[in-house]
Amino acid sequence: MNGASTSGGESVIGLAVLGKVAGVLIALVAFILLCAWLTRRLAPGLSHNRIGPQMDIVASKTLGTREKVVVLQVEDQWLVLGVGGGQISCLHSLAAAPIDTPAAIPSSDLNEVDSGSFPERFARALGQNLRSKGKGS
Question: What's the family (predicted)?
Fold first, then answer.
């Protein structure tokens, strides 16, 4: 009878030790998560104090399921980037305009851009593109 009670006592002690270890692990994970939360909450400016040029996203437009065009301001210059297919391509760069006012568009281009629906404007732009390529070759 002593042998049966001894093995039962050992299993209870084993479960108690296992419970203590699990409790310590849970407390340790909770402590790590609390430290990460406090770091983000109390020091939000640390991630912005990088050395190098200041970059801001001025505009972004989705073109398809994986493609988009992004206008990125790097110091006093705007970069028009094409993002898609796992790569980023610089499409154009220009001097930065103030964000609160629209970029300066010549009035001749403004009338052409605003007239008609999108399919009409697209067909007109495609025709101009094909004509300019035809003259170049």
Answer: Belongs to the FliO/MopB family.
pLDDT at 118: 72
Query: Model pTM?
Result: 0.37
Q: How confident is the model at residue 28 (pLDDT cuts 50, 70, 90)?
A: very high
Instruction: List the domain range (segments joined by +) for residue 130.
Output: 107-137
Between 74 and 53, the more confident residue is 74
Please compute the mean of the pLDDT values over residues 67-80 and round it to a whole number.
Answer: 87
Same domain? For 60 and 99 the reply is yes
Q: How far is Cα 108 from Cα 102, in angstroms, rounded to an integer?
A: 16
Residue 88 shares a structural domain with residue 58: yes
Both 97 and 58 in a single domain? yes
pLDDT at 61: 87
Are 97 and 121 found together in one domain? no
Quote the number of domains for the chain. 3
